[in-house]
Specification:
- Helices cover about 20% and strands about 25% of the residues.
- By secondary structure, the protein is of the alpha+beta class.
- The strands form three sheets. Strands 1-14-15-2-3-5-4 form a seven-stranded mixed β-sheet, with helices on one face.
Length: about 425
């Protein structure tokens, strides 16, 4: 397990950057002013984007994660303080900040994004086949958000302007996507701004979170990086109680690897039922298929132990870096945990994965693949709905990321309910 000195990091994290920018040219208008300035003729997205404002847009460096806004986004942690500590905590113990209204945070994001196109519209597809559950569904969001250091320093998206990757704006696109779909549980990969952005902001929205970095993150090879990237798992504290949390460093051929997973057993406060949620990110690139297969087997064995051999329902989110034709996909499909892939249910026959979950252009060519999945215990859980994917027309000829979409991977969102006939399992 990845270990780190807690006291030194917590001390660094206690320094908040709450002051607004001194230079008037970098000040942004209040949310109320942004509302008044919205363009009347622009078709509203979900949620609507504020209209462009006059004057030049400030450009900020990758390492500076402190917003120029005076309120919620300004109260993120100083990346310069965090970056002094390369050994990161898996779980942060930052003092709880005051709650914020998600609508206010969304408006602040929209102020920063005034000159960008509106959010791309996506709709939920109703997948229910039986009666409506008496309990609120559990909304789970899976997303590889693209590490900032990799996006700017390594990935070389040749059709994406560097300005589109500006962190001060891109982080608002990420937050806007999260705020739009309001997940109860959020599973992220390639998170390299956990301590200075996502943990302090999402904790104020009511989320409890865990971060587990890669032991040898490629982000650290990038100049002016913000620390290692890793997996992060967030859940709403008013909906769930954490029973057990396990950080897993995946092995392959009995060797520890650079890939990780987080698995947490939660109790649903409304139903008092237990379930396990896991997030992972397997090894990338062609030629590593057997390696991914071994990592998948290790993760499945860990999850069998944690769920007591599938007695506890399970949801697994991840960027598997594997097409459905790969062995690791088949291992999850045929596992004794009785798993199914939720996004298959969007297909006409219920048996086919989406045509893509990532679409990008690099110097080596155009890459269009299905790599991201939400697996679930099909004997114990029902998929009530799933968020549709972006169409090719919406994505556009330059592919992802772009000015109106912050990552090279699409977010996946599903609503789950417990199978009412299987109370005995729980």
């Amino acid at each position: 397990m990845y270990q780190s000195p807690a006291r030194s990091l917590c001390s660094a994290l206690s320094t908040l950057c709450c002051a607004p920018a001194a230079a008037s040219s970098l000040r942004l208008r209040s949310p109320a002013a942004a509302r008044r300035a919205r363009s009347p003729h622009r078709a509203p997205a979900s949620p609507a984007r504020a209209a462009p404002a006059a004057g030049p847009r400030a450009v900020h460096s990758m390492g500076n994660s402190t917003s120029r806004l005076y309120s919620a986004l300004a109260k993120t942690l100083s990346s310069s303080a965090v970056s002094q500590h390369r050994e990161y905590l898996e779980q942060s113990d930052v003092e709880q900040l005051d709650p914020i209204d998600p609508k206010e945070l969304l408006e602040e994001c929209q102020v920063i994004l005034q000159k960008r196109p509106p959010r791309l519209q996506r709709n939920f597809v109703d997948l229910r086949t039986d009666s409506i559950s008496s309990h609120r569904p559990i909304r789970v969001m899976q997303w590889n958000i693209l590490a900032q250091a990799l996006g700017e320093g390594k990935d070389n998206f040749i059709q994406c302007p560097m300005e589109a990757l500006n962190w001060e704006e891109r982080k608002c696109l990420i937050l806007e996507e999260i705020l739009a779909y309001k997940p109860d549980i959020l599973c992220l990969q390639e998170v390299d701004h956990y301590f200075d952005t996502f943990q302090p902001l999402l904790s104020r929205l009511g989320y409890q979170s865990t971060f587990f970095p890669k032991p040898w993150s490629p982000c650290l090879d990038v100049e002016h990086n913000n620390g290692p990237d890793g997996c992060a798992l967030f859940f709403l504290k008013d909906r769930f109680e954490l029973i057990k949390s396990v950080n897993i460093r995946l092995t392959a051929m009995k060797l520890k690897t650079n890939q990780v997973a987080i698995a947490q057993t939660l109790k649903c406060n409304e139903t008092e039922k237990l379930f396990c949620i896991a997030v992972t990110h397997l090894k990338a690139r062609t030629g590593w298929e057997r390696f991914r297969s071994a990592q998948g087997c290790d993760l499945l064995q860990n999850l069998k132990n944690i769920t007591q051999g599938a007695e506890i329902p399970l949801i697994i989110c991840g960027d598997f870096n594997a097409e459905p034709t790969e062995e690791v996909y088949k291992e999850f499909s045929n596992s004794s945990l009785n798993l199914n892939s939720a996004y298959k249910l969007l297909s006409a026959d219920g048996q086919s994965e989406p045509p893509y979950t990532t679409w990008k252009i690099r110097p080596s060519g155009e890459c269009r693949h299905t790599l991201d999945y939400i697996w679930y215990s099909q004997h114990a859980l029902n998929v009530n709905s799933a968020l549709s994917l972006l169409t090719e027309e919406q994505i556009g000829p330059n592919r992802l990321p772009s000015f109106n979409y912050p990552s090279d991977h699409l977010s996946l969102v599903c609503d789950f309910s417990f199978n009412q006939d299987l109370d005995r399992l729980l």
